[in-house]
């Protein structure tokens, strides 16, 4: 099969590799139709991701069609249009038993050396990771379910409700997913920051009430001014930048919440005195669980937001190197780039 392989940092190319095969009765083989380029793929491309380590066939945002099923698969059929929740836990530890398999220490993640990802033309996954696409959701929209589920999980974990004021630091795909999820959960004042005007324009179309371009404006001053010095109820960190992390403590209200969603390439330093002084609740948010995936799929099926604003380009898999560089170097105005087989 064809696969885009990250051979080493800053080196990716299309190769012919062996197709994965079903080895367990509960497994499903999928032909990938489209797959997204995520920030974690860029971290892998840089050689800085903690577990997507070259050489690797990465990729975990996908939609495709079932082409083969194992003998014990009951609820999935050949021909089903699907996406995949790209991780699963050990099933026996305390976290898995509590339903928190997203933080299982032994969980398996798609797009690693141990589990070939959707940058390959075919993948094999356990049946319980399959999420069927609603009839009115295209393959391209289906590939957006995963990044949106990241936002859904963080927003549910933070307990966003009607009338909340929130700030989202970073307007990339994860930040925009957080925006959609906070708006759908009832937030009425939504600040979002970025250095790229293109992304902020998309954010405004998706419902952000106060986009802030940090190239020209001090986000801390603006947010405190618009909240009468109080700050927001919850801050979501959607970009792994040192300065953003400490800004979050300045703009959250006393007793408020900071949700850390982003991956940091370098270990950040924080001014921990803010957490003690303001009694800030610092919340980690790691990927998602199935409920988040299903909520995201339902939101797309219900046309709760314009998915076309997310999908900037659809690129043939043969042009994967150019596509990766486009996302990495921000050489063009893009939010989400999809690769198509």
TrEMBL record:
Obligatory cofactor(s): Zn(2+)
GO molecular function: oxidoreductase activity; zinc ion binding
InterPro entries associated with the record: ADH-like_C (IPR013149), ADH-like_N (IPR013154), ADH_Zn_CS (IPR002328), ER (IPR020843), GroES-like_sf (IPR011032), NAD(P)-bd_dom_sf (IPR036291), Zn_alcohol_dh (IPR050129)
Domain named Enoyl reductase (ER): residues: 13-339
Transmembrane region(s): none
SUPFAM superfamilies assigned: GroES-like, NAD(P)-binding Rossmann-fold domains
UniProt keyword list: Metal-binding, Oxidoreductase, Zinc
The family this protein is said to belong to: Belongs to the zinc-containing alcohol dehydrogenase family.
Name of the protein in its database record: Sorbitol dehydrogenase
Organism: Neobacillus bataviensis LMG 21833
């Amino acid at each position: 099969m064809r696969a885009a392989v990250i051979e080493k940092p800053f080196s990716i190319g299309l190769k012919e590799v062996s197709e994965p095969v079903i080895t367990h009765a509960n497994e499903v083989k999928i032909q990938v139709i489209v797959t997204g380029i995520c920030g974690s793929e860029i971290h892998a491309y840089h050689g800085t991701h903690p577990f997507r380590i070259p050489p690797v066939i990465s990729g975990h945002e996908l939609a495709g069609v079932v082409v083969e099923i194992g003998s014990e698969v009951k609820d999935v059929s050949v021909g089903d249009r699907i996406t995949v929740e790209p991780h699963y836990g050990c099933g026996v530890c305390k976290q898995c038993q509590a339903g928190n398999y997203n933080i299982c220490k032994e969980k398996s993640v798609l797009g690693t050396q141990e589990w070939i990802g959707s940058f390959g033309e075919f993948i094999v996954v356990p049946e319980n990771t399959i999420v069927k696409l609603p009839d009115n959701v295209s393959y391209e929209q289906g590939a957006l379910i995963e990044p949106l589920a990241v936002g859904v999980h963080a927003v549910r974990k933070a307990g966003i409700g009607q009338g909340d004021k929130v700030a989202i630091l970073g307007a990339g795909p994860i930040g925009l997913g957080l925006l959609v999820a906070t708006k759908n959960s009832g937030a009425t004042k939504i600040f979002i920051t970025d250095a790229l005007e293109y992304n902020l324009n998309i954010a405004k179309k998706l419902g952000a009430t106060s986009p802030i371009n940090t190239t020209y404006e001090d986000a801390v001053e603006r947010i405190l001014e618009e909240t009468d010095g109080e700050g927001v109820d919850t801050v979501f960190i959607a970009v792994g930048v040192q300065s953003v992390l400490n800004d979050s403590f300045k703009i959250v209200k006393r007793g408020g919440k900071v949700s850390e969603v982003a991956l940091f390439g370098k270990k950040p330093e924080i001014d921990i005195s803010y957490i003690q002084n303001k009694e800030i609740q610092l919340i980690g948010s790691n990927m998602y669980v199935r409920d988040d995936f299903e909520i995201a799929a339902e939101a797309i099926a219900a046309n709760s937001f314009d998915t076309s604003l997310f999908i900037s380009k659809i690129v043939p898999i043969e042009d994967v190197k150019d596509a990766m560089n486009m996302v990495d170097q921000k050489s063009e105005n893009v939010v989400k780039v999809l690769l198509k087989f």
